[in-house]
Amino acid sequence: DGRVLELTLSVGLTACSDQQVMFFDSVLGQAEAALEWAQDHGGNQVVTFGETEIRRSMEDPEAAPPTEPKP
Prior knowledge:
Blueprint: E1 11-13, H1 24-40, E2 46-48, H2 49-59
Parallel strand pairs: 1-2
Helix pairs in contact: 1-2
């Protein structure tokens, strides 16, 4: 019908190697923290958990890194 549908996508990623032991809740929490950061900073981007920690420390060096997502 000719209408344009505009979409955006924000993705939060995290990973761990086979040598690291992480609980599923921890991995999920890291991915959620990365997604929240992506959305809070304009959306329409893919962000990894490690990247959010680096960016947070650059924005506020005094801030402690989050270990769990906000409820």
